[in-house]
Amino acid sequence: MSLGSYCFRKSLWVFHFGGASCNNCDIEILDCLTSRYDIERFGMQLVGTIRHADVLLVSGSINRKCRARLLKVYNQAPKPILVVAFGACGCTGGIFAEGNVFGGPVDTIIPVDAYIPGCPPKPEAILAGIVKLLNK
Amino acid sequence: MAAVNYEIFPDILKLNFDSDILGLMVLQRKRLVVQIRKEALLEIANYFLDELKYRFVIASGMNADHGYDIIYHFSDDSTGYMVNLMVNIDEKKPEIESMANMISAANWIEREIHEILGVNFINHPNLTNLISGENWEETEHPYARPSRDNKKSQRT
Amino acid sequence: MSKKTVIPIGPYHPLQEEPELFKLYCEGEIVRDIEWETGYNHRGIEKINESKTFDQVFFVVERICGICSTSHPFAYANAMEEVGRVEVPDRAKFIRTIIGELERIHSHLLWLGLAGHFLGYNTVFMWAWKYREMILDIFEKTTGNRNNYAMFRIGGVRRDIPNIHISDVKKMLDAIKPKLNLLLGAVMDDPVIHARTKKVGILTKEDIIDYGAVGPTARASGIAIDVRHDDPYAAYPLVDWKVITSDGCDVYAKTEVRLLEMLESVSIIDQCLDKMSHTKEGSIYNPVKEIPAGFGFGRAEAPRGEVFHFVKTDGSNSPARHKVRAPSYVNIATFKKSCIGQTISDATIILAAVDPCYCCTERMAFAYDYYSGKQIMNGLDLIRISQQKTKELKMKM
Q1: Which CATH class is domain A3-135?
Q2: ipTM surpassing 0.90, yes or no?
Q3: What's the CATH number of domain C45-329, 1.10.3080.10, 3.40.50.2300, 1.10.645.10, 3.30.565.10?
Q4: B4: in domain
Q5: Which residues contact C145 (CB under 8 A, 6 or more apart)?
Q6: How many angstroms separate the CA of residue B118 from the nearest CA in chain A?
Q7: Among candidates C230, C294, C308 on the partner chain, residue whose Cβ is nearest the Cβ of B80
């Protein structure tokens, strides 16, 4: 068993980094936590600091100002860490990629393990994405 | 608040501030654009805010044929009437008196216009970065385009 | 001089140009001053719009804020219809109003849940969000999407709500009414919520006027401004409803206004559905050939207050200048008045009370010691202090 699969065998704790996002992805992530989708039954939980997390969830396009902060957060993370680019903006920059302050898609800044596309992805898509990531 | 008859409102304005008004445009039943001299901005804005109890909505800065235009939007919430004061600012000396000391709502937007167009607001209490931060350099003004006059002079 | 502590709250905050880092300057427990830094969420939307055609702009403004993804297209449509002097068919007006009001309910429920979470009532959080799903189901039924509905176009709407769907939507709406009443009772009769929110974060009428605050923030201070009433648009003049105000000026009054507004919204949607069934199916937009040069001033009442869009056109097929003012832009500035003199444990709920979007307090809040620069508290701690206070109050009662 490799170190990676050993680390991610049990409950995943997720840290959510919102770049310059429009909020929709953030809401759908929170939606996953509440009663209908209840992601906590899989042991997943949002945590307040990256130092406790197994997964770094990045939503929203990244502008120049938060680019440096994203790198900082990634460097603070305990390795190994799974990075998930969330939503159309997280994957490619989406509609804001042509803006004058766009700092680059997430995968040009930090290595990304999984992409969950959609604007915003439905909670079901989030669950499916995480399951796929775990079975990788 | 004095009830104002909006049919004759443009005429009343002309009566009060005749020399300061450069142009009047009635767009719709409830929309009025008034082009004014920039030196008279505070006086006219004060008339709307204090005497007529209008609400300051926001200001928009934009490029114009000569320099920049700033439109100050005011709203009368009892009738839904909007008055928009438009001032033109010279490109070579982009300066205008700040409204932030009169009404706090103007504080942020003046900082923003300062960043995107490079217009200088005189007597602003705190004319620092609002949105640019590390997004663009302080000397850079992403929304400002050189006007037609300037382009011509560059070409020749 | 006593030691001052700086508590930064932020920086990520997902509205248009208003994600910010708040620095609370504290003396002991009391907040003495507040400062902010923004720019973390600046996406240059106004600049992007200048390179889009009028129809494409709808999809960009929809993504200014995910929660207000109807209000921005609404205001933009109002502005464009003003420039082009376009008439909107009645059926489209009703559909617009229905979508706008559904959005208000879902946004207020979202806010209520988060406010409950900050106070230490996770039950309110779970329940409010559970009932919010019912609204999202109606959205899915009528527009096909849970968020970002893409319903608007210049001159009307893109999709019809067929008459056969009206009774289904009504049934779903009827199921929500008792749940809203339940939440209303649960929040209004709770002595602990009263103790936590009454006389906290006071904003006087003068403050509201000075800062130009709008929406529930202003209405909770007794100022009856509501664009739906003052500058009527869409189907609001065609239905019966009233502007909800309160004279409390505090956090409780803002909660009360929002809760009552939700019930009002349900009644508006009900009436719209009734009246819509008498209009001709399928006539949902008037074609627009071209937009002349001119100015357009569009306003719409978002759940958080007035959204203002200013469009300058030059006769081409894209805006020459597009200025967007979201309601939080003016509402957030009122923190300077409402936070000062309050305790840190109340700061969280005061900041949340204007509904500035929750992420700033939820995600990356750190407290630094002013002198050593050492981190002493993070966002969860702030929420924890707030929840602790509720617990202590409960014990006392």
Answers
A1: alpha beta
A2: no
A3: 1.10.645.10
A4: no
A5: C139
A6: 17
A7: C230
